[in-house]
Every structure is written in C-alpha cells, then in structure tokens.
Amino acid sequence: MLRFDRRVLNNFDWVTVLTLSLITIMSLANLFSATWNGGPSPSPLFFKQLYFFLFGYALILFILSVDYSELEMLSYVGYVAVCFLLIYTKLFVKVVAGSQRWIDLGFIKLQPSEPAKLFLVLVLASCYARFEAKEDGYGLLDLLRPAALTVVPFLLIVIQPDLGTALMLAFMFVSMTLFSRLRWPALTSLSITGLITVVLGWKYGLKPYQRRRIETFLNPESDPMNHGYQIKQSKIAVGSGEFFGKGFMEGTQGHLNFLPERHTDFAFAVWCEELGFVGSMFFLLCFFFLLLWGMNIALSARDKFGVYLAFGIVMLIFWQGLINLFMIMGMLPVVGIPLPFFSYGGSSLLTNLIAIGILMNIRMRRFQKR
Amino acid sequence: MRKINRRRTHGTEEDAARSGDDKTVISHINQGELDLYRRRAMYSSAVLIFFFATLAARLWYLQILQGDQYAKLAQNNRVRTVDIAAPRGNILDRKGREIVTNKPSFNVVWVREKNRIDEELIKKVAAILAVDPSDLLARIRKMAGTPGHIPIRLAENIEWDKVAYIENNRMDMPGIKIEVVPQRVYHYGNLASHMIGYLAEISKEDLTDAETDSYRPGDMTGKMGLERLREKDLRGEKGREYMEVNSLGFEQRNLKGLEPLPGSDIQLTLDVDLQQAAEKIMMDENKSGAVVAVEVNTGRLLLVASSPVLDLSKFLGGISSKNWKEMLDNPHHPLINKTVQGQYPPASTYKIVTALAGLAEGIITPDSTVYCPGSYRFGNRSYRCWKYKGGHGTVNLKRALSESCDVYFYHLGQRLGVNRLANYASHLGLGKKTGVEIEHEKSGLIPTSEWKLKRYGKPWQDGETLSVAIGQGFNLVTPLQLAMMTAAVANGGRLYKPSIIETVRDPDGHIVERFQATELDHFTGQERALNLLKEGLIEAVNGRRGTSTKARLNSITVAGKTGTAQVVRIKQYKHLKEENIPYKYRDHAWFTCFAPAENPEIAVTVLVEHGLHGGSAAAPIAKAVLEKYFADRLPKPEDAGALPVVPVGGD
C-alpha cells in the first residue's frame, strides 16, 4: 500500500520524528500521572490517548506516501466537508456544557472545529500559492477570497459557541496573510478593521460568561472560586514546581484535585509541578525547536504551495501552544485551547499529528522536481 | 483599471486550475520570492524566539523567583470541594400520601490525604463503631481505585450517640467525618415495588459512561422501575461545599458553596388503598398474578399489582447471588412484573372481542341463536364447550356471554375469520405495547393468517380460528392490555394510553409535567354493539347462571367476564381432581370487569396464575378491590377493617 520513491526515503525527516517522539513520551508520561486515580492500573483515558498516538503515527506514514501537492484538491473537499460537519453539529448535536462541539462517532467524539483549523491552513496555502501578485503586493480586494474562506468556518464555530477556536482561525488567516506580500494600504485597513472588530465584539458579541472570564483575568479577586480560581491554582501548580519539581506523580495540586481540567487544558501545569523548571524548559525547547525546524522546512520547500503550507502548519501549532501556555502561566484568561500533542483529546491530537505528517512530507520532497 | 486587469488574469489562472492542467500554475520559487520568504521567515522566527524567551522568563519568574512562595501556597492550599447529596424527589400517591421519601442517614467517612492508611486511626474508629478493624480496611481497599479526594464510607446509618461521640472527638481523628446523606424510606413497605423500583450504588460501568459525569463512586442511582426511568427528575442536583482545610485535614473554614437542589416530586395516579388491598389479598391467599385497575374515562392507573411483590430489603446494598438464584427459581416468579411482562392466553375474556366483532360486522344480532349440544364438530374433530355434559341448549348473545358458551363463539369465530377478529382486537389495544411507563412491557400476540405464514411458513388452518375465537391458541395478552380493553368497552370505545404519573413537581412547587389523557384509538359508531355487550357482561355477574357471580356487589352493578386459560393440554391430567394437578400445569384464572355498569368509572382486571377458575379464583379479588374503591357508596359492612375471606377452589 505504501510506496516510496527511494530518493524520497533518503530524505526522510529524522529531525521531526525525533523531536515528536520526545514530545510524545513527555505527553504520555504526563497524562499517566494526571489521570492516575490511585488504582493499580492506569486510567482508561491514558490508553485511549495512547491508541490515538499510535493511530496518528500510522496516519503520518500514510500521508508521507503521497506527494503533498496531491493534497491540494483534496483540501477543498475536506474543507467543505468540515463546514458541513460544523453545520450538522449546530443543528443536530445536543448542547453539552453550554455549547455544541462534539459529534459522537462511537469510538471517538469528533470535534469538527479541530480539523477545521488544518483544512483552513490547507486551502489558504493553496489560495496564496496560486495567487500572482504584482511586485508591490496584494491589494485589499485580492484578500476577499482567503477572507471568505476563513469567515465561513469562523462564524460556524463562533455560534457553537467556541470563541477560543474561532479566534485561532482568525489568527491563522492573519499570520498567513502577513506572510504573503501585502500592500501598505491593505495592511493598514486590515489592522483598523481588526481593531474595530475586537472592540465591537467585546461590547456586543461576547456571551456573558466569556466576558466574565476576561474580566476575571483582569481582576482575579472578583471571582475566587471560578475562573480566577482556575488560573490561581494553575499558577500555584507551576510555581510550586520550583527548580526540580515535586517528582513524577507527586504533584499535590494535580493529585489532590485542586487543578481543574488537569488532563486537558491544564495538562502542562501538572508537568511543570512535577518536573519543575528543568522539565518545563526541556519541553519548551523541544516544542520551539520543532516550530523553528518547521520554519526551515518552509524555506526549503520546492514550490510556493509547500512554503505556505509549512508556514501555516507552524503557525497552527504555534498559536495553539502559545495561547495554552500563556493561560497556564496566568498570562491570559481561561480559553479552551489545548496544548498540541500534550492535552488529552483525540480530535486535536490527530489533527496536529496529521499536520506534522504534512510538514515531513514537504521536507522529504524538497528536491523532487515535477 | 489596473485592478480589473489583474483580476481578469487571475481569473483565467483559476479556470486553468479547475480544468486540471494546474501543475504549471504553482510555480517554483524564483530568487526574488525566495528572498521575500527568507525575510518573512526570519521575522517569524524572531517572533517565535521572542515568545519562547517570554515563556522561559515567565517560568523562571514563577518557578525560581516566586517558587518558594508558590510552594508555600500549595502547602497551605487545601480548599477541598465536597459534594452534598441532593435529597431525592418523593413519590406520592394520587391523594398525596407519601409512598417513598427520604430521611437523613449518618455515615462515617474517611477523607484520604495522600492515600496513606493510618492503622491507629482505623483501630480507633472501629472501636467506636464496635466493628472489626479488618472490615474497615476491606472497605478502604475496595475503594482503592477511586480519586483521592472522594471520601471513603466506613459505616452507614449509625446511631445518634455514635454521631455525637465522633463529632466531639474529631480532633483526635483527622480525616474522619460524619456525612449526612438522604436515604430512601418506604412508608408502605414493598408496595408496588416492581413499578417503583429501588436504588443502588452506581456501578463502575455506569461511572465510566461519560454521560453520567455528575455521579461519583458511592452515589445512589435508580436501578429499577420509576426510580430508574425517572432518575433525571428524581435525583436533583448536587450541592458543593468548599472547605478550606489545613495540611492535617482539619477544616479551617467553610467557603461559600452551592446548595443542593432537591429532586422533583412525582405524584402517581396510584391509589395506595386499592394497591394495598390487592397486594394484601394476593399475599394472604398465596396467589401469584396481577391486578390492574384503571380509571375508564382517562386511562389513569389506580392499581398495578404484581404478586408476589419484590422484597426490596433484599436489594439494599446489592443483592446476594444466593437471593438472586432463589428468586429466579421461585415458581411464583417474583422478579417478573406480571402486569406488563406476563403474557397469558386471554381465554374467555377474549369473547368480548369476538362478540363485538360479530355485532359490528353484522354477523349476529342480539336475537341470533346457536344450539349448544356441549361440543362443536369441525372437520373431523370435535371442539368441546366447557360445559360438555348436556351443553347450554339454545343460546343467544346475552346467555353466551353470561354463561361463557364456547360453542356459540366457535360458530361466530368461524364466520368472522381470524383476520377480521384480529382487526378488532388490535383496535382494542391487544397485541401491542400500551406504552405505559413501566419497564419491560411485552406486546402480547394477536395472530393473523399472515403472521402465521411468516412465523411458521404454514397457512392458517380454519380449526385454529375456533381456538382463537375463545381466546386460546396463539393469543397472548398482558393483564394491563386486558384492563385497557375493558375500559374501552366500558367508556364507549375509547382506548386510552395507561399512565401512572399524575404530576411531576419541581422543588419550587411548579408542576413541570401533568397527566393528560391520551387516546390511542377510538371505536366510533358502535354504541349499540357496546351496549349489547355490556348487557351480556352485566348478566355474567348478576344473572342467575352467570359465571362471575362472585364479583357481585350489593348496590353497585358490576359488569365482567371470567376466563380460564389452559396452560397445557395434557391427557394424563384430564381426569385428575383439580387440586391434584401439579401447580405449574394448572389453568390460569382471569377476571376483568368494570363498574358501575350504568356509568362506568373503574375497570379492574385480575389474573391469578394457575388459579384454575376465573369465577372462583379471580372474581373475588376484583370484588375486594371494587369494595375498597366504592367504600363510601356501599352499605357499611359489620366489620369495616377486615377484608372478606374468600374460599379458594371449587366452582
């Protein structure tokens, strides 16, 4: 089934594989600790995530076997499919904890907003790659198509409501647009529109609970038991790790249940608590090394599609990671953005692993002429 | 102008892309673009590194500079969240009498810190509770797999003096706490236990189900009956207490918490008096079977008794395998709710359907007669009337019903055919589930020729129609179906959906659900036929030669029909005296009736498993229920408290 050109295999991206494996080991070890409930065997959640990892690695292998340019047409199909899934979710899925995000497929609860991020990157990359700009760059009108492609899933996710993920889409659009050559008037008008949107959104667009989260963040004492509480506990977890940490499986914040969502959004806080500054820095190094390496892949790509795609994937993982880490370290309000590869959750993990697969694909085929 | 141009060229490129020869469109990167991307990538990498540095600095600040402080906070940080169980909703009868409520139960719990077992502490607690320390250790071990912040229950429902002792000496016993948990109280014992059901600790499988995320190990949840079906209404919402405790586990102060929200109260349509009367008489006479009473004009169930009742005390704290096996092997089948789960041949009660079909189809008139010599010859077989010695002579419809003449209905069934008969049975609700809110309802069976061909691959035999016409053969009904049918006959042809829930009332007293009569079927234009039928049924109870005279009341006219359902047709028992036939081969006894006949209010159906004869075994039970129901309207009996004692057997 899997057929590889030998030249392609010779260019196999060992750097990414190695870094990803390190991150995987840290992630699983951390999940083992975070979900351990005192029993003799690890929690079922641990095994579930383990299987997702294995499945994801298999998917990577599969993705590597096709040239990434084949993915381009497929990406539009996927994009449309994901949009329909988002509509389906809104119409037919019952509300869980105030929003409609998951489609139950039996073996996995699919969260279509996760693959939506990746498909947006794919279609935007295709868009910008095909776009011939004049020497002075794109004008505002040229941006209509990519903007439209972003707005559809953006709105569908906003109404779920899942503001955090929707903002991720906006970030992807902005980063990839800035990466292309933009004319100054376009840039300025874009920034002004963005600012106005933020102000209006804050005033009229946010649900009360969303506004409260941000207010709580700005003034944590106003709501000690809820969102301020979560951030406070997370900071205590991170800080009390000190230099060497409390030791694997020894974190009190996590194991005494003070830390909220300790295997999903706040998973990294458990890591910081148990492995301290040393362990946390090691993870950060791996994570950012992967990102910088991805940037390098973008530069070595053989065509424009590859460049934009690789860059988009780096940004996808970067923004998710940054927002989650900022939240854990008490520098942002609570937003439901998982840390890529680290937070428990099948949809997010598979999406990010597929993204890495595409990145490796671009790297492997950098010399191949078509 | 320039813009338009550009868009046009752009458009053609896009078209080229769509038409397939797109490979040339994505160009390789020329030097100018590569420089551009280099620049952009450099800026981006700089941004990445900047944020990396920010995060590293933040980690340094939190973990190294402020580390001591946060470590101290973590040390003192012991805000423990404790769930407070919500009182479960009460279950009341139609008059508001409490059937199931809650009382506080005091439990001793141990809150683990770090999973370490303090042997001294356990010994101390065991001494207070007067139990063996190894019992407590066993309980702790059983809870080993649960998250540490969930308290382990060491003893349930302890006496008040022990509660006081533990509360006074809590300083010596860190982590030991008294927990107050609502516990179910059954004011009428096992009343309607099949229908109401019971609670049990939530199982590990249910806990791993993501839908039940508000449950914790040790929580009670409905396992059967209404307690299970209406779990969502009854359970309420847990409260939460935020307890600040120091590192030894002592409570420092109670932060603002969340009050539990009690569950909704469920008022049943059931009448405790009737239910009790029926269950008592069935138990006193050691009968197993079912008694159902329904309000004929609404479908409210007043009584749903299955005998023997389920002994709920055996289910508390999990049923032992010995008890379970005992119940499974019991010939009286206590685990089966016979009102909806038991399927029996309707026997002669089905003659109501046959008669109605005959009248409605114009095959008979009240004056049509049949001569009954005691048997009916069909093909080369002789079909017996129950009174095969001498027979009934010339009978019309009224006599045929009141004396339950089989030969009359053989004739009629023969002319109707099985499918026409099935059509009427189906309009009267037989052969399909009623949709009542009781678990494990069975649909029964009303055969048609098509059904037989599909099920057995054989065509229908005319001889089988004869058996079906008198309610034997393939026919199967549940007592509830028969009660609803009787109600439909009584109320002029309206088949109601049976219901057991009158109202559901939330803790604020708002009614969130209210009983509404639901018509499943309406039999129109048959008032005359139904009236003729009623006359026959009145005669059966009140006539000189009626089969159901044991259900007769003093001042209220009862209309009813008996039935005796053959269990097996075995020659060797034919000549035995009835009391010598082994229990499990004896016939089932039916009686179904309504009253007052002139203006019906209530329909009662009784089935006595292996009770031999409807007239002698089942009718007196229906009479007892009717007496209770009409207590204010009947002349006072000498001894108001005692139920009439009815002789068993004999006819």
TrEMBL record, chain A:
This is Peptidoglycan glycosyltransferase RodA. The chain crosses the membrane at residues 12-33, 45-64, 76-93, 151-174, 186-205, 275-293, 305-329, 341-362. Keywords: Cell membrane, Cell shape, Cell wall biogenesis/degradation, Glycosyltransferase, Membrane, Peptidoglycan synthesis, Transferase, Transmembrane, Transmembrane helix. GO terms for molecular function: lipid-linked peptidoglycan transporter activity; peptidoglycan glycosyltransferase activity. Coiled coil: none annotated. It comes from the Bacteria. The gene is rodA. It is found in: Cell membrane; Membrane. InterPro entries: Cell_cycle_FtsW-rel_CS (IPR018365), FtsW/RodA (IPR001182), RodA/MrdB (IPR011923). It is an enzyme of class 2 (transferase). It catalyses: [GlcNAc-(1->4)-Mur2Ac(oyl-L-Ala-gamma-D-Glu-L-Lys-D-Ala-D-Ala)](n)-di-trans,octa-cis-undecaprenyl diphosphate + beta-D-GlcNAc-(1->4)-Mur2Ac(oyl-L-Ala-gamma-D-Glu-L-Lys-D-Ala-D-Ala)-di-trans,octa-cis-undecaprenyl diphosphate = [GlcNAc-(1->4)-Mur2Ac(oyl-L-Ala-gamma-D-Glu-L-Lys-D-Ala-D-Ala)](n+1)-di-trans,octa-cis-undecaprenyl diphosphate + di-trans,octa-cis-undecaprenyl diphosphate + H(+). One of its GO terms (cellular component) is plasma membrane. Belongs to the SEDS family. MrdB/RodA subfamily. Its EC number is 2.4.99.28. Peptidoglycan polymerase that is essential for cell wall elongation. One of its GO terms (biological process) is regulation of cell shape. Pathway: Cell wall biogenesis; peptidoglycan biosynthesis. It comes from Candidatus Electronema aureum. Pfam families: FTSW_RODA_SPOVE. It is a multi-pass membrane protein.
Automatic annotation (TrEMBL), chain B:
It is a single-pass membrane protein. It comes from Candidatus Electronema aureum. Residues 1-21 are annotated as: Disordered. Its main location: membrane. The chain crosses the membrane at residues 41-61. Residues 10-21 have a biased composition (Basic and acidic residues). It comes from the Bacteria. GO terms for cellular component: plasma membrane. Residues 84-254 form the Penicillin-binding protein dimerisation domain. This is Peptidoglycan glycosyltransferase. It is found in: Cell membrane; Membrane. Keywords: Carboxypeptidase, Cell inner membrane, Cell membrane, Cell shape, Cell wall biogenesis/degradation, Hydrolase, Membrane, Peptidoglycan synthesis, Protease, Transmembrane, Transmembrane helix. Residues 289-627 form the Penicillin-binding protein transpeptidase domain. Gene3D superfamilies: DD-peptidase/beta-lactamase superfamily, Penicillin-binding protein 2a (Domain 2), Penicillin-binding protein 2a, domain 3. One of its GO terms (biological process) is cell wall organization. GO terms for molecular function: penicillin binding; peptidoglycan L,D-transpeptidase activity; serine-type D-Ala-D-Ala carboxypeptidase activity; transferase activity. The keyword Cell membrane applies.
